[in-house]
Amino acid sequence: MDSKNKKILLTGGSGKLGSAIRKSGLFPNLLAPGHKELDISDFRSVMEYMESHELEGVIHTAAIASFAIAEKDPALAIATNTVGTANLVRAVFLKDKNMRFIHVSTDQLSGGTKGNYKETDPVLPVNKYDWTKLAAECSVHLLPNACMVRTAFFDPENIPFDESPDDMYSSKLPVGELPKDLLALYSSDIKGVINIGGKRMSSYERFRAYKPSIKKTSFADVQKQQILGVIIARDTSLDSSKWENWLKKNK
């Protein structure tokens, strides 16, 4: 499948990942409507957009990504993360159920106690954000040509905090590295859940490479500072060997 010749709907085009996808130039026929043109929380809006455009695929990045917002206003998080995703899935079924559908999920679903999670590990959400994203995956699973990307990313040029824990781990990638992976994934026949991440590293070690002035703190201190007492996961690192092996075989 040559993605460059396809019209692909990108949701969340103004977010960090959506912006990186647009700026990458890897998807020249990308459609990235704003909220006024496409409101994913409104099924009628989604269906009208689908009917008025010739689409061959969807890359779904739109989400309420803030733990604090999801904790304070779970109804909003449900409307966007859960219902919004289900609306897109339902519209795809009505338009063309075999349409390629890439859903950007999260690395937060497995509890965060041991890390190095595989796609087949049990899920154990720890906060309201996690639950809305897990519910979103449930609807995407129903599509025959869909893939759910469990990942996490950050903007190396905008690290908005001055401290980071040296005992909290993830596989976060610089956001600019993900568009090429999403292009390869979109063009592949991979279905179901796939992990895409980098090396397991502490937050302090990872961010210090881009912000040398950052100071060291602890997971316990970060948890204490959480607004509304949101529970956060300590180790969300991913085993991305399935994806890495696919890339090696398909160079």
Model description:
It is a single chain. With 251 residues, the protein is α/β, with parallel strands linked by helices. Helices cover 37% and strands 15% of the residues. The chain has a single domain, classed as NAD(P)-binding Rossmann-like Domain (Rossmann fold, 3-Layer(aba) Sandwich), CATH 3.40.50.720. It has 9 helices and 12 strands. It has a 6-stranded parallel beta sheet, covered by helices on one side. The longest helix is centred in the middle third of the chain and has 23 residues, at 74-96.
What would you say about this model in short?
This protein is an alpha/beta fold and 251 residues long. Helix content is 37%, strand content 15%. It has nine helices and twelve strands.
- Low-confidence stretches at least 5 residues in length (pLDDT < 50)? none
Q: Could you name the CATH homologous superfamily?
A: NAD(P)-binding Rossmann-like Domain
Q: Fraction of residues in helices?
A: 25-40%
- What CATH architecture label applies? 3-Layer(aba) Sandwich
H and E string: EHEHEHHEHEEEEEHEEHEHH
Strand order of the largest sheet: 2-1-3-4-5-10
CATH topology group: Rossmann fold
Number of structurally distinct domains: 1
- Class based on secondary structure composition and strand pairing: alpha/beta
List keywords for this structure.
251 residues; alpha/beta; Rossmann fold; 6-stranded parallel beta sheet; two-stranded parallel ribbon; globular
SSE map:
Elements: E1 8-11, H1 16-24, E2 30-31, H2 43-52, E3 57-60, H3 67-72, H4 74-96, E4 100-104, H5 128-140, E5 146-150, E6 153-154, E7 163-165, E8 169-170, E9 173-174, H6 178-187, E10 192-195, E11 201-202, H7 203-208, E12 215-217, H8 219-224, H9 241-249
Parallel strand pairs: 1-2, 1-3, 3-4, 4-5, 5-10, 6-9, 7-12
Antiparallel strand pairs: 8-11
Helix pairs in contact: 2-4, 4-5
